[in-house]
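PT: before anyone asks, these are the final sequences, not the draft ones from last week. 263 residues across everything. Please model them as a single complex and drop the result in this thread when it's through.
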Amino acid sequence: MKVIIRNTASEASLWVAHYIAEKINAKAARTDEPFVLGLCTGSTPIETYAELIRMVKAGEVSFKNVISFNMDEYVGLPEDHPESYHSFMHRYLFDHIDEPAENIHILNGNAPDLAKEAADYEAAIVEAGGFDLFLGGIGEDGHIAFNEPFSSLNSRTRVVTLTHDTRVVNSRFFDNDFNKVPKQALSVGVATVFGSREVIIMGYGSKKARAIQAAIEGPYSHYVTVSALQAHENGIIVIDEAAAGELKLNSYKYFKAVEEAEM
Ligand code: PGA
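LR: through. Structure below.
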C-alpha cells in the first residue's frame, strides 16, 4: 500500500479530488467505457466533493460517463430524511455535477426485500464492469463502509448491524440523540470494496489516528476491517498529519521517502 501524508485535511482532500479526476480523464482518453466509481458519505469526503464540483464547473473533469455506487445506506430511514445517504450525496455532490441520474446507484434501505436489494446491487456492479476506483473513509473502529469489527473479510453487500460505538459517533448528525441513529444499514462488503481495481481510503484528524495505525501497521484482521487493504495491489491511504500521529516514526519516514522518490 501507499500512504500519502499531507499537512492538513484540506490539502489531503484536494490531493484525492485531483487523483480521481486524473483517473476519470485518463480512462476517458483511452476508451468509451464508463468509469465505475465507489463513493462514500460522512464528514471526510466533503472537501474532496467540493473540489470535484469546482473541477466539473471549470470543465476540468466530467462525470457524464461515470457510473457510481455508494457504499451504504441506513435501513428504515426515509430517503428524503436529511441524514439519509441519498440526501447527503445529492446535497454534497450529485446536485452540482453532470453525472446522469441513471448512473447514480445508492442502496435502498427501505426496500421490501433487503436481501434481494443487496444481491441486485452486487449484480449491477458486475454488470457495470466492476469498480475502477473505490473511495472510502475509515471509522474510528477501523470499519470500511459499515463493515464493523468481525465482518468477514470476504463479505458482500448485505444488511449489517451497527456497533454501539458507531451509533454514538454518528449521533452527531441526529441531534446528538443516539436513539435516533438507525440500528441497521445496507452496506457493501469488505470484498466488494477491495474487489475494486484501485482503492483510496481517507482518514483525517487525531480521532482517526488509532484506526489508521491499526490499518497500516496492525495485523490483517476482521477486527479492523479496513486492514484488508493490506492485501490489495493498488491501495492508497490518504491522511493528514494528525491522523498520522500514532504511526511509528520509521513508518512515517518511509512513506514520505516513497512519495519523494516517485515525484
Ligand atoms: P466520517 O465517517 O467521515 O464521518 O468520519 C467515516 C466512517 O465512519 O467510515
